[in-house]
């Protein structure tokens, strides 16, 4: 994820080597998951793995620990190809009218400095509660730029950096839309997310005001085998088709190449859709109805033509009566394209806010995804789902935002320095 | 915690015995913490502990795992003396007008049955998303009865089961007050809390409506050494003076004895105060000002007259200038009584909701505590804090609720069966 591997990662490699294990590139890509090993050693635990995690040879196990840290500096920002943490807070801000290009530069220097510290378990520069900073728990802070910020910076915006086209299924509530600056703050520890969010919002006091805050969750770190695809609140396995981190496939789909403005090379595009899920209505649907709507089994997420989650769906298979096994209207069929370039890297979270009135839930999905070109990758998928996707019966997009995620930076630079 | 130890606990003991470790009563009291060991085995990890957790002999380490389960049935309800989980949702409900004693009995039978299943990682009886039930992560569900429910049941209410006396510092917002029925749903996994909350609220559809929902968090399981006292969002170590679980001291302070109505013996009293914390204003205070306000160091929570968190404060110690080292107005001095019966078992959580307007935080403490007699234990402490506690400058109680927590039940009974 980063070419500037930090000291503690090297120490973990050394320590792993001593105990006869080796950290593969795959483990390093898992970031904090692998980093937990060193920390486990620190509290006096030897971990010996026999099999598991889909391999026959002995290997390290990602033991969760609060001291695990994901490198901040690197070619790309962290928080994109990082194995998703358990908790996230997305914050969008509006720049104050007086903020100009020079102020933006100061703002990003301050934010970069504090984010770099906090992600490594160090207090922010003016940290008023330094004791809350000591548990990074794989904290990542990822910055995104909206069209307004790029304009103030006088930079060239990629063509896709604008509100998404209006979809017929949308019932957008303005309070969840758009923004000039995005913070994605994610960690396996909710107190860490709260503290980092507060420190960064304090940095932003003289530059911007909060536009919206959206918090979400997945299973806690340690609840499941690492790499398990998340389930949403419908009980669906959600995100199976993601490209594999560390492959050229992933790199091509996610990281901006030269066809985007130069300042964005090594960055990516980000879409956040707040999707309300009507759990009460979903209750009225039986299991086979649910599986038809999705095109996958609920039990393990296998396509209806397969037995394992990762099986390739067979869209030509038919039932004895001649109907497609994976229905035309199913989410799986509508989301999938013949064009393999029309894919995205999903990194969503569930939300579950307090219900009001007679409803027993106020829940949904923070559908978050990364792709090099939003127009070429996300929009065609969403257009197909807009036209015909049975899941639309139970889901409603109520918020929408698009941001450009600038590349990472070196220790001497700051996030966004290619733009300013 | 329960005399009905479940099968998987026995299996863990057996498994622990095989590997040469023994689960002490203390470990059993830690519930899911210890239970993680069996689960670790299941995914192919051997854990060997060398020292740690404050003991010299080899012992088990509380390795977090989603499969860890806290027994549901027992003399007391779980979730009171259970080592606090990372996440909580408190829900208060209003009974529907048509609900009578017979309906209450049905309601509590249904809730008990589903809570018993869910806490053991089994689907609720009419679970629409059974796949979300498989990770209990130490889930506990604790039920509380407000005065309205006890009245409908025709039972005798303890004298303290009523709104707290009005304190001068209170700025209560009615939407956070009182209620007929309380659910405390806590787990180390946020998805588990969301699913259990939804299943139980579905059970309640024909009996009650939601009055308020308050969710909170502590550090994630695995972030810190088990038993570490939590920190609140002021950065304070919060809850040091708690009685030790499993001692006669704890039992006497927390579990109702014969001086409460008979149906409550083995139960306890519960107070939830929603305390808004003005982090912006707190920022204006330097470290020494903060430590004076609290009476403890921020670094490790030691009283200002000591060096370790658990040191007994010396209220007679004075500075060279003759002032008390622990100031008269400090929270520590005001909260502490000479009367050792005036103590409570705190089990609070942080909250951090989306800020509005120019504020950069909307945060505070879900101050939750258990005590056998609210009037004799909680009220005198709060009265002293109301009169003079410098912390009142930065904190405001905005919600308040009192519930009677009935005792636990056997497999053939249901929560509240001593009342009905």
TrEMBL record, chains A, B:
<keyword id="KW-0479">Metal-binding</keyword>
<dbReference type="InterPro" id="IPR006314">
    <property type="entry name" value="Dyp_peroxidase"/>
</dbReference>
<keyword id="KW-0575">Peroxidase</keyword>
<dbReference type="InterPro" id="IPR048327">
    <property type="entry name" value="Dyp_perox_N"/>
</dbReference>
<protein>
    <submittedName>
        <fullName>Dyp-type peroxidase</fullName>
    </submittedName>
</protein>
<dbReference type="InterPro" id="IPR048328">
    <property type="entry name" value="Dyp_perox_C"/>
</dbReference>
<comment type="similarity">
    <text>Belongs to the DyP-type peroxidase family.</text>
</comment>
<dbReference type="GO" id="GO:0004601">
    <property type="term" value="F:peroxidase activity"/>
</dbReference>
<keyword id="KW-0560">Oxidoreductase</keyword>
<feature type="compositionally biased region" description="Polar residues">
    <location>
        <begin position="1"/>
        <end position="16"/>
    </location>
</feature>
<dbReference type="InterPro" id="IPR011008">
    <property type="entry name" value="Dimeric_a/b-barrel"/>
</dbReference>
<feature type="domain" description="Dyp-type peroxidase N-terminal">
    <location>
        <begin position="77"/>
        <end position="218"/>
    </location>
</feature>
<feature type="region of interest" description="Disordered">
    <location>
        <begin position="1"/>
        <end position="21"/>
    </location>
</feature>
<dbReference type="Pfam" id="PF20628">
    <property type="entry name" value="Dyp_perox_C"/>
</dbReference>
<feature type="domain" description="Dyp-type peroxidase C-terminal">
    <location>
        <begin position="230"/>
        <end position="409"/>
    </location>
</feature>
<keyword id="KW-0349">Heme</keyword>
<dbReference type="InterPro" id="IPR006311">
    <property type="entry name" value="TAT_signal"/>
</dbReference>
<dbReference type="Pfam" id="PF04261">
    <property type="entry name" value="Dyp_perox_N"/>
</dbReference>
<keyword id="KW-0732">Signal</keyword>
<keyword id="KW-0408">Iron</keyword>
């Amino acid at each position: 994820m980063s070419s500037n591997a930090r000291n503690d990662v090297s120490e973990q490699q050394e320590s792993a080597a001593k105990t006869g294990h080796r950290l593969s590139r795959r483990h390093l890509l898992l970031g904090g998951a692998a980093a937990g090993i060193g920390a486990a050693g620190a509290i006096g635990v030897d971990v010996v793995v026999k099999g598991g995690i889909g391999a026959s040879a002995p290997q390290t196990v990602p033991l969760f620990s609060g001291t695990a840290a994901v490198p901040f500096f690197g070619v790309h920002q962290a928080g994109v190809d990082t194995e998703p943490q358990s908790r996230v807070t997305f914050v969008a801000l509006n720049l104050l009218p007086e903020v100009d290009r020079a102020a933006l530069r100061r703002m990003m220097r301050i934010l970069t400095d504090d984010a770099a510290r906090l992600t490594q378990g160090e207090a922010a520069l003016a940290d008023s509660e330094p004791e809350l900073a000591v548990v990074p728990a794989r904290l990542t802070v990822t910055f995104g730029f909206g069209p307004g910020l790029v304009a103030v910076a006088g930079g060239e915006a990629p063509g896709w950096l604008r509100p998404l086209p209006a979809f017929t299924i949308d019932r957008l509530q303005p309070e969840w839309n758009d923004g000039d600056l995005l913070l994605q703050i994610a960690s396996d520890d909710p107190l860490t997310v709260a503290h980092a969010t507060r420190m960064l919002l304090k940095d932003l006091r003289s530059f911007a005001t909060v536009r919206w805050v959206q918090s979400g969750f997945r299973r806690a770190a340690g609840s499941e085998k690492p790499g398990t695809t998340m389930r949403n609140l419908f009980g669906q396995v959600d995100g199976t088709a993601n490209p594999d981190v560390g492959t050229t496939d992933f790199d091509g789909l996610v990281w901006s190449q030269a066809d985007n403005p130069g300042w964005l090379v090594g960055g990516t595009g980000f879409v956040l859709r707040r999707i309300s899920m009507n759990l009460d209505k979903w209750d009225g649907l039986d299991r086979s109805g649910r599986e038809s709507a999705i095109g996958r089994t609920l039990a393990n997420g296998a396509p209806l033509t397969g037995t394992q989650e990762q099986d390739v769906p067979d869209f030509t298979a038919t039932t004895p009566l001649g109907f497609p096994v994976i229905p035309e209207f199913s989410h799986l069929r509508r989301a999938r394209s013949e064009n393999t370039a029309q894919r995205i890297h999903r990194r969503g979270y569930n939300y579950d806010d307090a219900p009001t009135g007679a409803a027993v839930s106020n829940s949904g999905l923070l559908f978050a995804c990364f792709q090099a070109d939003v127009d070429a990758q996300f929009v065609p998928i969403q257009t197909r789902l807009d036209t015909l996707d049975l899941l639309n019966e139970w889901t409603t997009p109520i918020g929408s935002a698009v941001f450009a995620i600038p590349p990472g930076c070196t220790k001497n630079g700051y996030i966004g320095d290619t733009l300013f």
